[in-house]
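User: Can you predict the 3D structure for this chain?
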Amino acid sequence: MEENSKYILGLDVSTSTIGISLFEDRGRHGKLILLHHVTPIIKPKPKNKMQELFDKAKVFEVEFLEKYADIGISKVIIEEPLLRSNNVNTVATLLRFNGMISRAVYDILGVIPEYISSYDSRKYGFPQLMAVRTHNKKGEPYTEKELAKNKPVLFGAYPSDADKKMIVWELVTDMEPQITWLYDKKGKLKKESFDISDAFAACYGFMRKHDFWD
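Assistant: Here is the predicted structure, written as structure tokens:
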């Protein structure tokens, strides 16, 4: 790490894996320094779910935050949890854990986190994803009259059932071809790779949304 440099941290937080991206802020653009993840597994697993969340947050503190506390991280971007789940308990758990990670960031780095939705991280990070949808969910083409009313939407050029996380991963790979991603024994991308690429999008999209980076 270079002295006197400012670093921007991006996090994609879930209770299973925390995706991490770290950029050096170079004025109108950022240089990717690190893509990483922490997958905290607590053994033996506590019977109390809240204790497990607290323990997982502590693992993240020890395995990442404390190791990077002194490099000069000046901004932390966290992707907001999706709240559209039909399971109220899942949403509540995500919000609690997101709050724990936010507090850990503040306590250890002394930085108040800022937040971005997954929609905005993709919209501003990869504006080429905004396009007018030409076909409905059944794959049928819209009429010219219908097309004239349609506005650009995220992933508009892709089928409705397209794997959006895979698309984002491919875009990040195109931008940063030097990255070594995580694969399982069968050569399939591990889930953690998508958490990492989402962390990249959160940081990159936030900086572009607020006109810090071109």
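The beta strands are 6-13, 18-25, 30-38, 73-79, 114-116, 130-132, 152-154. The chain has one domain: 6-124+163-209.
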